[in-house]
Amino acid sequence: LCHFFIQVENVRLLDRLSSRKAVLGTLYLTATHVIFVENGSETRKETWVLHSQISSIEKQATTATGCPLLIRCKNFQVIQLVIPQERDCHDVYISLIRLARPVKYEELYCFSFNPKLDKEEREQGWKLVDLNEEYNRMGVPNNYWQICDVNRDYGVCDSYPTEVYVPKSATAHIIVGSSKFRSRRRFPALSYYCKDNNASICRSSQPLSGFSARCLEDEQMLQAIRKANPGSDFIYVVDTRPKLNAMANRAAGKGYENEDNYSNIKFQFIGIENIHVMRNSLQKMLEVCELKSPSMSDFLWGLENSGWLKHIKAIMDAGIFIAKAVAEEGVSVLVHCSDGWDRTAQVCSVASLLLDPYYRTMKGFMVLIEKDWVSFGHKFNHRYGNLDGDPKEISPVIDQFIECVWQLMEQFPCAFEFNERFLIHIQHHVYSCQFGNFLCNSQKERRELKIQERTYSLWAHLWKNRADYLNPLYRSDHSKHQGTLHPQIAPCNFLYKFWSGMYNRFEKGLHPRQSVTDYLMAVKEETQQLEEELEVLGERLANLQKSQLGDNKVKSKQQDRSKQLRLSTSNNSLANTPQEYSNDLKSFPSRSPSQGDEEDSALILTQDNLKSSDPDLSANSDQESGVEDLSCRSPSGGGCLPSEDSGKDSDEAVFLAG
Amino acid sequence: MLRSSQPLTGPNRRRCREDEMLLGTILDEGERGFIIDTRSAQAAKQARMTGGGTEPKSSYPQWRRLHRPLERGRPLQESFAKLVEACSDPSLSMDRWLGRLESSRWLSHVKAALSTACLAAQCMDREDAKVLVHGAEGTDTTLLVTALAQVILDPSCRTLAGFQGLLEREWIQAGHPFHLRCAHSAYSHARLKQEAPLFLLFLDCVWQLSRQFPFSLEFGEQLLLSLFDNAYASSYGTFLCNNEKERSLCKVKESTHSLWAWLNQPEEQQKLLNPLYSHNALVIWPSVEPQSIQLWQGLFLRWIRPSQYLDEAWAEIQRLVEEN
Question: Domain named Myotubularin phosphatase: which ranges (chain B) (predicted)?
């Protein structure tokens, strides 16, 4: 049973694309969700939004129809409500402001979320991703790399994990000394080891070099990294900041490595902008997404103006540089930015993904995020606003990484075991706080809060539903994909697409109505089933006389199944109705509004004067242009795209039955 | 759906009883029809000065005129050339690329063409009304709209055979001047007056439809690319000349081979079919939001980006479907 604080009737939910389309329903506010339930029809469609997903709430000017309330979410859903009474609207507004800005961790959904698993299942879920296993898989510890426990009580660096890998020749003294010379004590540590050629990717924060400071231990640390790769006599040091920013840091006593002081390093700036620039970039891009009926020019200009794709490409280019250095040159790379927890994480994980096909599997990807983001102290709480905090710390850092992966998937459709939906759901849960993986700012904080004992692991949830996340085109045996991926660096701006699956995720009208991925997965499954069946029947045929009848039964089953195949995969197909094609006149400068009776106005064909807008619910549900089937495929909410929001957890669903 | 060229109203507002009767008989008593004029209202008005014009409401009372200006002629060719130039420039930063993409306006033209075709389709399917489409000459944007509208409305036009029939009817026999329009393509420095990539624009729009409705077209991108190639330079006579009269005079049918004959051979056809195709009896309404309209990489980046990974994906899709 669930209690709700507020219930408001006769609320209208507006459709963004078609401002005339509004649905009437009831709005509920619970401790964890905002819920809108449509009136009337048997379907009673529900829209659920987690408070933790709410990014901003805007109360707009009261109109004749009521008080508009705009809710913008971190997963890019935008909900426009119109509440009839001003006072109700105000109550909802005030409550949401409070609910969307939790002050204590205990207020977060993950502490009350109950997937009805027992203690052991919960533990098993957390054990699904094991970083020790991962380092072993990479090939360490070995002659060149060893595990280091100098940080076992977080005494050296409180944002690092207790266990990191360091070069064999790096003694505890060197490590501690180096940590004192690094911002936030984040000393160079291993991110990825390539056992084929001993090249490695290490990560750290910026050195506290100022204009002329030196630190013997830090210089020795870098030497140790170099020595851990006998195949090369130098290492790259990659500073992912723009040169100007890095130089400015010197005035604050920080900075970057001077090639004169560090023997055998080749220093490289790869300018990726900082978290503030990225936050603004996303903001601008979302403004473009909110434009009503933009022209192509508005859209492209807005996209360019936001700079978003430029930033995505910068991150990708950095990853490519590092992957090339490791795979083609066999040279180790030390990567850092300022604090080594944002751009460093992005760039290291992109490089790893390019280098190692394991990270392109579903399990491998989870491991990658655990390693380079979770264990290395990416500040999830600050960046994604688990708790109410400094708005200047908020930035779409992991979102950008996730988008890099999507861009790669578009260029290499057969190379990833998982599909777009997997990425979208992960992004969703970075903000949802439904699971404990992305809480707090460091391993230390998570252990103090006993996250693993009090919450559940996202990875277990995704793994359980992995059938929904598979890429039907993935072939692990394709030799092309066994090694490094080589994305084009230049010229290739045009290969970067706007990810409408993410940024317009909830605008169904924009996307192809039927998913090719789902269809192909269903085909694959069916083929497998049929092959298995064929085997069984083949055996039976050899044995029994009655097999004649059995064959015929199978044939008709096959026909039914392929018909079912098309039907079942289109459960998520959407009502395909004409857009308002006629509104689109502002892109033609030659149109002058004074044409009077000779030219028809833009409003000629609107939803109002169309005779029949939506096709009959019962007809043609298996066609692309067909009808929306509002039932989600899997009740656990893993099935269809919108369900991560509107999916109800079984215990929550009950109260709405009344 | 009907198509024509502009009425020769002229500066003196001439009338033609036969024309009025013709359009009158098409509509039943009290029925309303729509005229979709692919010129802007201003351009259409100006056309009167040179002998052309529009259908005055008083003479054609049952018809309601809508203006949906579509680019044609030199500006469209410029748009095409600019886009191709932008695609081939390796020095562009991301910002410059998006800027050049936008200033080429090619995608805006795609959006406009799709929107207008959808409007025509909407008039017929939703309003049960008859539609007359014309621009100036009736050989360019007119055909773009009528052909595209049929792909949207009619499932038989989405089959391989039906699509070929559509091309024959709405482009070739309807008299789109291929010889003039598809002369030198985008790299040529000579900007021929009559050259314009209307047919390419049509193919691009069809590609957009195939992307938005991956199960609804019986053919794939390969066919569209092949048609593009053959419109400009071909071993076959299908796209020769400017109209049926010229083809007859040149004895095209007697002295050349038909592209369709080649494409319809089983081995060739195999390459053109869409493995995901499943007959869709309904109208397919595309989204014309900017996010839904994408650069046709397969055409514009054909020689610039490596296609092996996408070819591999396509082959995998074919394999999966065939195995089933």
Answer: 1-300
Chain A interface disruption, residue of B88, B102, B104, most A CBs within 10 A: B102
Q: How far is B258 from chain A (nearest CA, A)?
A: 34
CATH of domain A6-101: 2.30.29.30
Domain borders along chain A are 6-101, 126-380+396-519
Q: Which long-range contacts (CB under 8 A, 24 or more apart) does A462-467 make?
A: A462/A362, A462/A366, A462/A422, A462/A425, A462/A426, A462/A638, A463/A128, A463/A362, A463/A363, A463/A366, A464/A636, A464/A638, A465/A634, A465/A636, A465/A638, A465/A639, A466/A362, A467/A521
Domain range summary for chain B, segments of one domain joined by +: 2-306
Bridge partners (DSSP) listed for residue A147: A165
Mean pLDDT of B276-281: 93
Please name every residue paired with B37 in a beta bridge, in sequence order, or none if there are none. Answer: B67, B134
Q: What is the DSSP string of A376-427?
A: TT--HHHHHTSSS--GGG---HHHHHHHHHHHHHHH-TTS-SB-HHHHHHHH
The answer, yes or no, to whether residue A506 has pLDDT greater than 80, is yes
Marked catalytic residue, from A73, A337, A433, A632? A337
For A260, what's the count of Cα atoms within 13 Å in the CB-facing half-sphere? 5
Residues near B150 by beta carbon (within 8 Å), at least 6 away in sequence: B1, B157, B166, B170
pLDDT tens track for B35-63: 999 999 999 999 999 999 999 999 999 99
Q: pTM, whole model, 2 decimals?
A: 0.87
Residues of chain A contacting residue B216, judged by C-beta atoms under 8 Å apart = 624-625
Whether residue A141 is preceded by a cis peptide bond, meaning omega within 30 degrees of 0, is yes
ipTM value? 0.93
Name the pLDDT band for B29 (thresholds 50, 70, 90): confident
**How does B252-272 read in b/e, with b if 16+ C-beta sit within 10 Å?**
beeebeebeebbeeeeeeeeb
CA dist., res. A148 & res. A176, Å (int) = 11
Residue A480 confidence (pLDDT): 59
> Are A355 and A484 spatial neighbours (Cβ–Cβ below 8 Å)?
yes
Handedness of CA B296, B297, B301, B307 (dihedral sign): negative
pLDDT tens, position by position, A101-136: 999 999 899 998 988 889 999 999 999 999 999 999
Tokens found for residue B190: 């000579």
Choose among A301, A494, A624: nearest Cβ to B97: A494
Closest partner CB to A579 (pick from B287, B308, B317): B287
At A479 the pLDDT is: 57
> How large a percentage of chain A has pLDDT more than 90?
66
Q: What HEC string does A521-548 produce? A: HHHHHHHHHHHHHHHHHHHHHHHCCCHH
A110 is catalytic: no
* Contact in structure between A74 and A383 (CB atoms under 8 Å): no
Say whether pLDDT at B134 is over 80.
Answer: yes
What is the three-class DSSP state of A73?
A: strand
Q: What is the number of CB-based contacts under 8 A between chain A and chain B?
A: 223
Q: Would you give the DSSP letter of residue B138? A: S
Residue among A35, A46, A39 at smallest CA distance from A2: A35
Which residues are within 8 A (CB) of A532 and not within 5 positions of it... i.e. 6 or more apart?
none
Collect all residues of chain B within an 8 Å Cβ-Cβ radius of residue A518.
Answer: none
Q: What is the 8-class DSSP label of residue A60?
A: P
